[in-house]
């Protein structure tokens, strides 16, 4: 058996010792799979590098919501609160994703119809909504109230059409900003990639 620590092939040493004048490949050559492994590794690094530069990470404002039914025939209204710190980033017409309690992953995308101009205290929300829903709000943090109108008096969940009822609770989220994955991981890159 050959010594794997030997860098010269046995045949090459014997050939060299025989005194022939023609040259040959004296060094032990790498296996052929290393060539393909190099290019595979290079492709993987290139893919993740491009993903870091072009991929984006979104930030969402989330908060509790409640269904409000008006007079018969009036549109169903969704009343929600979002953290007040996101108010400068919110705008009328932005898409608000609603997920009702008891119906996980059954999302409804609704445009924001009304957006509060002022930030309110959760105690003020409690007076309008009642204690049950307002208790889900963070204590001491100001919120902004948003409203959306649902085009239909019912929603679809798991292949069935179900009616909205006054007081149904849920959660809403609105995308407020996004940034490159690379600048999220290394904030100093924001100087080069705005």
Describe this structure in words.
The protein is 24% helix and 32% strand. With 194 residues, the chain is of the alpha+beta class. A 7-stranded antiparallel sheet has the order 4-3-9-1-2-6-5. It is elongated, with a radius of gyration of 32 Å. Keywords: Membrane, Transmembrane, Transmembrane helix.
Terminal Cα span: 61 Å
Radius of gyration: 32 Å
What is the CATH superfamily classification of the largest domain? Efflux pump adaptor protein, beta barrel domain
CATH architecture of the largest domain: Beta Barrel
Low-confidence stretches: none
Relative helix content: 10-25%
The CATH topology of the largest domain turns out to be Elongation Factor Tu (Ef-tu), domain 3
In spatial order, strands of the major sheet run 4-3-9-1-2-6-5
The string of secondary-structure elements, in order, is HHEEEEEHHEEEEH
Coarse structural class: alpha+beta
Largest β-sheet summary: 7 strands, antiparallel
Strand content: 25-35%
Total domain units: 2
What CATH first level of the largest domain would be assigned? Mainly Beta
Specify the overall morphology. elongated
Number of helices: 5
Number of strands: 9
State mean pLDDT (0 to 100 scale): 82
């Amino acid at each position: 058996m050959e010594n794997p620590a030997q860098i010269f092939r046995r045949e090459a040493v014997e050939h060299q010792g025989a005194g022939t004048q023609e040259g040959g490949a004296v060094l032990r050559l790498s296996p052929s799979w290393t060539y393909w492994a190099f290019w595979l590794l290079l492709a993987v690094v290139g893919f993740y590098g491009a993903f870091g530069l072009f991929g984006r990470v979104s930030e969402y404002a989330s908060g509790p919501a409640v269904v409000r039914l008006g007079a018969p025939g009036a549109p169903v209204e969704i009343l929600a609160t979002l953290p007040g710190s996101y108010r400068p980033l919110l705008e009328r017409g932005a898409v608000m994703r609603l997920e009702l309690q008891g119906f996980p992953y059954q999302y409804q995308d609704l445009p924001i119809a009304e957006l509060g101009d002022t930030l309110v205290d959760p105690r003020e929300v409690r007076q309008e909504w009642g204690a049950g829903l307002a208790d889900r709000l963070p204590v001491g943090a100001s919120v902004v109230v948003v409203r959306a109108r649902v085009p239909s008096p019912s929603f679809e969940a798991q292949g069935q059409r179900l009616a909205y009822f006054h007081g149904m609770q849920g959660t809403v989220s609105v995308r407020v900003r996004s940034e490159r994955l690379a600048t999220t991981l290394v904030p100093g890159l924001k100087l080069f990639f705005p």
